[in-house]
Every structure is written in C-alpha cells, then in structure tokens.
TrEMBL record:
UniProt similarity note: Belongs to the UPF0065 (bug) family.
Pfam families: TctC
Keyword terms: Signal
InterPro entries named among the record's database cross-references: BUG, Bug_dom1
Originating organism: Variovorax beijingensis
Lineage: Bacteria, Pseudomonadati, Pseudomonadota, Betaproteobacteria, Burkholderiales
Coiled-coil stretches noted in the UniProt entry, renumbered to this chain: none
Keyword Signal: yes
Protein name: Tripartite tricarboxylate transporter substrate binding protein
First and last residue of the signal peptide: 1-29
Keyword Signal: yes
Amino acid sequence: MNVRSLPHKLLLPWLVAGTAWLCAAHAFAADPFPSKPVKILVGFSPGGSNDVVARLIAPKLAEGLGAQVLVDNRPGAGGNIAVSAMLTAPADGHTLLMCTTGTLSIQPHVLKSMPFDPEKDIVPVTQVTNAPYMLMVNSTLPVTSVKELVAYAKQKPGELNFASSGTATGGHLAGEMLKTRAGIDIVHVAYKGTGQAMTDLLAGQVSMIFDQPVSSMQYARSGKLRALAVASSRRLAAFPDIPTVTEAGIPDFEPVTWAGICAARNTPPAVVERIQREVARVLATPEIAKRLAADGLEPVGSTPEQFRAFLAADKRKWGRVVKDADVKAE
C-alpha cells in the first residue's frame, strides 16, 4: 500500500502512531536516569568529614533525583579503593565518588604510579564543600595554644605524634607543614580513615590531628579534645574564639581542603549535569547551608567546568606542599 496515496484523514493516525513509536524508542534507548538507587562511594571509614558530608546531602539529593541515594564506605589506599570501585561499575551515574583533596590533588605528586589517571578517568561533577583544617590535641596534652605546642614539641623531640586519615591526605600534609615550618620533630601515624584516627586521639594513643571541624568539633565542645587553631587566613565565623595558625607566628599556613562529587569517564554529560544541578540545589537549601556553616564548611556547588579548573589549580598548589615537605609514598 502506498501511504502517500492515502487521504489526509487516513494518513493522520499513521503519523501519530509513527511519532509515538519513535518517542518510545528514543526513551528506551536513552536509559532514563536514575533507574535504580544511586551510590556515593566514600574512600574513608564512617565518622570522617567526607562521610558526614555525604550522609548529610544524601537524603535531600534522593528527593531531587526521585531515587534512593546510598553512602557506601570503601576505606583504604588513600581513597583509591573507592576510586577503583567506581571505575569498575557501569559509567551511568549510578555509582559516584566523594572525591577529595588527597585522592586527586595530592597523591599524583606522591605515588610513583597512580592506579588511575585523575584527569582522564575521573569526571568532575561539582565541588561540594571547601574547608580549612582545625588543629586538635588530646585534652591531657599540657598545651593551650600553637606556641605552647611548638615549645612542648621542641622539648620532647620525636615523642609527640599526629594522626591522619591516611598517608598523603590533606591532614597528613598539614601536619608535615607544621613540622617543617615550626622546626619540630613529630611523628606521623596514618589510619584508614578519620574515624579510626579520632578513636585513638580520644584515647590518648596519638597527640594531635589536623581535621575538618565537622568530624571533630563535637569532641572539643565536650572537652575531650582541645582546638588550638584553624589553618586558614581568617577565623571561622562558626568558631570566632579559635585563632588561626598564622596568629601563632607561622605565616601563610592555609592547607584548605575540599570534597566533591565525581563520576567515572564516559558518564553521559546529561547525567553529569543533572547530578550537578541537584547537588547545587541541595547545598543552597537554608537547612543544609546552615548546618555546613556551623561545622566550619563552605558549600560550593560549582559547575563541572568550574570544578575542573579548580582541580587543576589545587593540584599545582599541593604539588608545591609535597615538594617542600618531601613527602614519600609508604
């Protein structure tokens, strides 16, 4: 039958049916996102700052995406175990990574060979938070300021130690910066996450830690830890009584860290943009913004392009820190 020869009244149903079939076929081929629960991989143990932030935004993100959002902790290897888990999953946006300063900005300068290419294998989605580290000490340590800590460490070289969530993480390098710039001999103790490090710090097994306020200030407020200083150019609005390290006489001490959402290579651009929009929306809600600010964190919500540019600059910055501290992979 020649369709062109049909009257317009008979041709119309054919056109409608054909259009509907094409739309249905396109929708089927597009694999709508999300079609199942979305997983955010955190490369450190529960209780750390990145874990706390991920669990804070997950419920609101789930509301916007219309799908369950799960937080899955994969600690170890400075976050690289979580990276590997994301890269072996389908690149469809359902498996995301809570990417961090240590994993993407520091480790490329420390490891002889990376198990992945940070620039080719990782897709920046959005920077979630920006935050300076806080210098915390066990409350039994007889110091109440950075100056007193430095003096105490010089009296007892090699006896004090500091914890971090892993080798070549931002907290580790912050401690190395203090060590070299203050001229003190303190020993680094690496853990598989901030939660484990905090447990030993509270028990007095380690002396101090550079950590984000979100995972440690509760202990300072309860008196179990003592906050000596914030590693920033200015005091935090949420903690105005805590001085900066610079105020203690160590200039330009600003090892600011960050957390973001990343996806695997080949993730569809439309999916990346959708996730970025939803995360930015969550960060802009008064409830979340207020909670982050109270914990000393700055919400960001940048675009993928902005985040990529930020990563390039941040990688250069930490490269200089690694060189100055002469940090080597263990």
